[in-house]
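Tubulin--tyrosine ligase 12, Olea europaea subsp. europaea. Tokens?
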Amino acid sequence: MEGAILQDCPRLEIYNSHLTPNFGEWALGFCGGLYEKENPGCSEQTDHTLQSVTSLDLSNRCIHNLMTKAFSPAELPVLSYVNLRGNPLDDNSVGSLLKFLKGFSSLSSLEVDIPGPLGENATDILEALPNLSLLNGVSASKILESEKCVVDSMLQPRLPQWDAVESLADRVINSMWFYLMTYRLADEEKIDETSVWYVMDELGSALRHSDEPNFRVSPFLYMPEGKLESAISYSILWPTGSIRGGDECTRDFLFGIGEEKQRSARLTAWFHTPQNYFIKEYEKYRAKLQSTKFSPPPVALSATNSVRRSDGGALHVYTDIPQVEEFLTRPEFVITTEPKNADIIWTSLQVDEELKKAVGLNDQQYINQFPFEACLVMKHHLAETVQKAHGAPEWLQPTYNLETQLSQFVGDYYTNEKAGDDNLWILKPWNMARTIDTTVTQNLSAIIRLMETGPKICQKYIEHPTLFKGKKFDIRYIILVRSMNPLEMFISDVFWVRLANNAYSLDKRSLFEYETHFTVMNYRGRLNHMNTPEFVKEFEQEHRVKWMDIHVRVEKMIRSVFESAATVNPEMHSPTSRAIYGVDVMLDCHYQPKLLEVTYCPDCTRAWKYDTEAVTKGGEVVKGSDFFNDVFGCLFLNESTHVSPL
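Tokens:
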């Protein structure tokens, strides 16, 4: 119908509120307020009817070609404000549009989608249009000073949304992230472990956001007895400038957070920010990952030798790990309590130059850690290392460092949302174990707000893992590394499964149940240990697969992880480093391994506590009490008892 109408009415300039390709002075005059019901005008206007128009709202008019005879500097000589939001303007290039708009000498205020027809960066637009004093309602000088890419003073607030079937509790939980405030309580033993979330009263919660607020709010704890148990909490509100009666009280939701900390992207927690910008950022990031090609280092012969003392005596080992002290019983090793006299330092502490100096360590001593191993054992560095080497391998879920990649993550989230795909994510602190401060959620506002409790990665949740008797599980592998260059590593014959206690579910309410979605029960919940041979036998029966097929894929993946580290961080190599790492793996519903994390000096309680069988070597008995004897034999005596080379 539209095509027929436009064809039969060639002088029609506006159709269903959209400007037709034939729009001219009358349509622009209508949008500029020259014509209305009492003064409709007509298409037979005299020339130069737009000479007095200073403001023109052309938003959402479906304009494809802006550069017409009617919309020109000659016809609109005093135009100072124009709103071009919501128009494709796809008949004009970015460069030609910027050059064209620069000809409007009086134009001082412009509103346009960013990214959009004038480009993807607010700073670039201002540099091309130096006469602008306001862009999307924000001062040009402030934009240039802050180097913002996206600016918009007209952001619409996110409002609570829910389904008719949702309970009141679910509605509150989904909406609370618009109002929550937070602070952290720390002591010497549990620093960064206690985050407190709270909601202010009606007055405090009614304070709206402003980039130029006139009030500040801070939590205040009064402890009359000097103890936390006696604390009474308040929110202190005070003005930061002159206030007049009738002024609205506002606060900065992101006080102290500038663009260097992704301020514009973080506003997405409360406001509808430009989706196109974030989707484009994600698409550029994804394209970069997909273009990455990995060249594995050449496989070389072993370059390590057995460690021997010059006097032929036993190697002296200093350790702060009780199980090593108890179970390292081989005559080739002897425990010492003096670190500076040890040949081998086996510690759970980070050994840096300061510690070396404090306890008198030297560069000839062997240490159970490699330089720069943070590229593996810190979650954000692990993702970065793998992505630099492999791009986006199937065995690594999409992972974002929220401190530096929030825009790309938001774009990924919006892309999934538009496609109707799952949008369940897991947030993990950079460097905490035992699932501390770890959250599973599909709430975008929650993900962004949870950044406030410490730096995190956000990783696509494995919505459909392989289950064991209806429950989620993961597997802990022990990896022994003798050398990073050439890469010389082994996988222990001893590995174990970690089982959730509850049946797996994707029901929203289950996301808060630790024993449904998490498997580490050593420190909370009820530990349900299962011997590995028993697990493998029952798993094969349940799923009708061969465990060795899965094991081969796991070995290949783990080798790739350490190859990534060796390639991206060659400075990891040290001739006096030997280490073991815990690698946690989950299987998706197609039995493909997914990397969860790599752990330094892993908890090996289940390895030394239980006797087991080497399921990958025909059921050979492996005594738990010999675990550390085998580890030290492999790393320092070049043995291969109960380990396999990778």
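The two ends are 68 Å apart (CA to CA).
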